[in-house]
Amino acid sequence: MSDKLAFQADVSKMLDIVINSLYSEKQIFLRELISNASDACDKLKYLILTNPDIAKDSGAFKIKITPDAKANTLMVSDNGIGMNKDDLIKHLGTIAKSGTAEFVNNVKDNGSVCDLIGQFGVGFYSAFMVADKVEIVTKKAGESQAWKWISNGCDGFEISEAERETNGTDIKLYLKDDAKDYTDTIYLRHIIRIYSDHIDYPIVLELGEAGEETVNTASALWTRHKSEITEDQYKEFYHHISKNFDDPWMTLHFKAEGNIEYTGLVYIPSETPYDLFQPDKKNGLKLYVNKVFISDKVEELMPNYLRFVKGVIDSADLPLNISREMLQHNLLIEKIKHGLISRLLKELKKRTNDYDDYMKFWNNFGIAFKEGIYEDFSNREEIAELSYFASTHDLNRKTSLGEYIERASKEQKAIYYITGDNINVLANNPQLEAFKNKGIEVLLLTDPIDEFWPQVLPNYKGYAIKHISQAEADMSWERKEKKADEGSMQKLLDLMTDLFKEEVGKVVTTEKLDKSPASLTVESGQMSIHLERLMRNHQQKTAFASTRILELNPYHPLIIKLADMLQDENRKAQVEEISKIVLDQAKIAEGEAISDPSFYSEKLSDYILKAIA
Ligand code: ADP
Ligand code: MG
């Protein structure tokens, strides 16, 4: 009796892409199957810790590769945890992971299946690149019934009861005609060595009459000495552990000695993972105790702002029978975490020596890394030191806070910043005009987190970190232009205060503006306009809306003219009309929406027409 089941829609779509891809490195399917076999052994090894009898008869862990040239089949077997019927349906009929839709979209966008197969956890399905039928016989450790799963990769799959003596899984591929190479033992040996040498269990190649041969080194890579590991081996291990297929930007392999001993082999990717900002994104570290895999969900091992770091931590000092629950609030784990952070920060510091190289890291992960200034109280200064920001000094090059300070004049006591959605809009914000005139550099911050970290880092190396609206320094400079006379200016201020009382708390003159007639700002110490906008976009009510201040430039010919026009009572309506346009322009420069776009564009067109008529 067998059950015929359909693939979940996502799986079908994905299989379609995998099978029809003209992907050249088809051999990675073997790496994926071996990697799954190794995971299955890891899982059983962990179960045995608490239940030593669960797999008495299945012998020492190993992964066996059996080619059959005559039948044109290839079998990958393991004596790991195995699967029951539910597992088969759940793991090999659906895609549990949220990344599938992204996988499909990504392939459409850039067509590179190769890099994506592993990253999105579609590993098993890569078998269908070389096989037109896959048959699985598997028995779960601790259960008595074995199961068979068969599929051609298109019309769903069939599950039926089967026989298998001990726990484990056999995955038999009926190879396509053009995939005969994968029965060739020389070729198999070659690709296993390239892709799977680091696997901790023996990978045994069945040679028929010549017997069996263990092909890999079969010792956990991180336990080997650095000098015995090649760069390629480090890279392959990174691919295995991270399920990414980029090259690591940083590889850090170390042994910590002292009151707690542990080995770490951790990596920073060279590409941004698709899920960096998914709320359920877990850290990428796997915890081993003396080479026994314990968990890849130990959140306490890595702070959130370093969630992109991938790798392995192995400590013999943790008790082997440690339960996953016991790992929370564990003092040793806490110590490992601190050690790990300081090593990573130290290593990053070294890499800042090469700006272009460091920017590869920064552009991928800076936005997450900066969260550390906010999140990690004890390392705040170090993280700030490693952070880079866009700045008015050079729009094409990011600056560190240290470099900013070096450029600052002796009189300058603060590091100034402005926040907004977009660097180019920010760079032209009228509020910066005084800073430009006085040669004061301003950081242009565009990430949401930039609204928050300055609040917890009020000082850096003796310099206050301040939003430009909080500048205390005298922002005026020597002017040659004519200024509106005070009396008529006051009248204009009164008119606008009344006209805009719904939208603007105050209308004042300022010495800060140069080229712009007016600009919007908020009272010093209030929530920035950008933050308010972010909150609004996240459906937070604008209950906290800061009071807007409309600042007028008394040196600007348009403002002078408006003040003048007000002397004539008959022109008041026109002054009001133009004032509205002035306010709209101030809003636009700030990146804010204007309240009546059609009024704005109509009136502006009218005035332009008059000017050119
Ligand atoms: P991933 O390895 O990223 O989870 P795969 O597509 O490679 O994704 O595998 C899907 C799932 O199928 C695995 O998570 C595992 O639960 C199950 N699986 C695959 N191969 C085996 C195996 N040899 N033994 C036990 N379970 C397996
Ligand atoms: Mg896998």
Question: Can you give a write-up of this model?
Answer:
The structure is a single chain. With 613 residues, the chain is α+β, with helices and mostly antiparallel strands. It has 20 helices and 23 strands. The strands form four sheets. A nine-stranded mixed β-sheet has the order 1-6-5-4-7-3-2-8-9, covered by helices on one side. Helix 1 (9-20) runs parallel beside helix 4 (100-110). It is elongated and about 105 Å long. The model has no long low-confidence stretch (mean pLDDT 89). The structure holds adenosine-5'-diphosphate (ADP) and magnesium ion. Adenosine-5'-diphosphate is lined by residues 32, 36-37, 39-40, 78, 80-83, 91-92, 121-124, 169.
Layout: helices, strands, pairs:
Layout: E1 2-5, H1 9-20, H2 28-50, E2 63-68, E3 73-78, H3 85-93, H4 100-110, H5 113-119, E4 131-139, E5 146-151, E6 157-162, E7 168-175, H6 185-196, E8 203-206, E9 212-214, H7 231-242, E10 248-256, E11 262-269, E12 284-289, E13 292-295, E14 310-314, H8 331-351, H9 355-369, H10 371-375, H11 380-385, E15 388-391, E16 394-400, H12 401-407, E17 414-419, H13 423-427, H14 433-437, E18 442-445, H15 453-456, E19 459-460, E20 463-467, H16 486-499, E21 506-509, E22 518-522, H17 529-537, E23 548-552, H18 557-565, H19 572-590, H20 597-612
Parallel strand pairs: 2-8, 12-14, 17-18, 17-20, 21-23
Antiparallel strand pairs: 1-6, 2-3, 3-7, 4-5, 4-7, 5-6, 8-9, 10-11, 11-14, 12-13, 15-16, 15-18, 19-20, 22-23
